[in-house]
Amino acid sequence: MPFLGHLNPIPSFPDYTGPYKVGSQDVEIPTLELSTSCPAPNPKITTSSFRLFYPCQVDTKKVQHIHWMPDPQSQYLKAYYSFLQAKPWLASLLTWVPFLRLIQYTTIPAVRDAKLLEPPTKTNGRWPVMIFSHGLGGSRNAYSHLCGSLASHGIVVVAPDHRDGSAPVSFIKDDAKSMLKAVEYQYYPHESTPEVEIGRNEQLRVRCWEIGVVHDALLKIDEGTSMTNTQASEAGHTLETFKSRLDVHRPGKISWAGHSFGAATIVQFLKSVYHRETVLYPYPGKALTEQITSASPVSLLDLWAMPLSGTSTAALYEKPLPANCGTPASPPLAILSHGFYKWTNNLRHTLHILSDPVSETHVVPYIFYPVSSAHLSQSDFGILFPWLTKKALKTDEPERTLRLNVRAMLESLRKSGITIADTSALDMEIEGEQHLETGQDGGWDKIR
Q1: Whole-model pTM above 0.85?
Q2: How many angstroms separate the first and last alpha carbons of the chain?
Q3: For the segment 418-441, what is each residue's pLDDT rounded down to a tens digit?
C-alpha cells in the first residue's frame, strides 16, 4: 500500500523510468589479467573494480536485490562518518546507532547478476556503453540511480570504484580467499596550493589509469576472454552474458561521463589520450586512441575545474576537448547544479574547458542547470536523504532533479547518434503517454 510505503523508515529509491528492467553485476578483475599501457601509479592497486548496470532479462523466481551499502557494511558506514569529519571514536560509535544503521537495509532496484537482455536489432546487436567516473566521497554505488536509470533506457553503464583515496574507503580483493585490503580516504583542502596540486594530480593519474584498465576489461569481456571476477556470485550469470553484445570496438561509440572530480577525470583522460599528452596518462594503447574521437559523447555533471588548472597541467588545460578537434563532432553536455552555476570562478573555467573559440570546428556545447538543486542532487544522496538535503542545502524535488539530469543525458546521446529507448512520459512530464522521444525543456534554465 502506498500509505504504508511512506511509513517505512528505510531510505529507498523510486523505480527506474525506462522500458527495460535493470540488472547489475559487481566486477573485480586482477590487473595481471588485463593489458595496461603503463605501470599502475600505485602498485598497491592490484585489481580493477566496477559495477555494471544493464538492460536485463528477469527470472522472477531468482530475483536477488543489491544492498546499496557494500560489504563490509560496518566499515563503509564508519568511513562515511569519518568522511563527514567525525572523530574516529565518534564514527565507530555512530555505526551502532540503530536509526543511523537503516541505510544498511537500502537496496538498489536492480536484479543482481541477471542475464543481459538481447539487444534490439536497431542497435546492430550490441548495447551502447557508457563509463561513469564518481566524484569525491563517491563509489561505484553512489550514483546507482542515475546509472540504473540510463540502463533502463538501453545503455550498459560502467561505474568504476576509484582507488585514489577520493572515496570514503575502498577495498581490494585479489582473489576469493584473500583478505580485503583497504584504501583509505585521503584528505586535501579545496584551496589551490602547490601541495594540493601535487596530491590532486597523483589522484588524477590513478583515475586515468583505472579508466584505461576498465576500457581494456570491457574489450576482453566483449571478446569472451576468460577472466577472474573475485566478486562473482555462485548463483549469478557470469561475464559471458556480455560476449559480443557491447558496442566498444567502433571508434567514438563509448560514452564518457562523470560527476565533480569524476567529470574532471573524464576531461583529463579524454584530452590526455586524444592529444597524446603524457603528464597524467602516458602511452595509451592503440584501441583506446582509436576509440576516443571528436564524435565521442561526453556528459559532465558539476565539473569541478580546480584540479584541471594547475601549473603542471597548464598545457593540457589549454588544449580543447576532442569534440572541438574534428568532424563529425558530438557537442559535449554539461549539467550544473544551482550552486555550481552560481560559482562564478568554476563556471568560467567550465566554459573555457567546453568551448574553444579559436578552433575551426568549434561546436556549441549543451549547458543546463535545474533550479533549486545542489551538488549532491546528481548522486544518490539527494534521493536517499531528501529531508537532510532540503534543510541543509535548500533543495527541492530530488527525484525530479535526477530525472531532469537523465533526460538531458539521454537527449545528448541521441544527438550524438547513440541509439537508445524513448524517454518516458514521466521524465518528459507529459500525462497520458508512455514513451516519447523529445519534448520541451520545462524545469531547465539553459545557458548558451
Answers
A1: yes
A2: 45
A3: 999 998 888 888 765 544 444 444
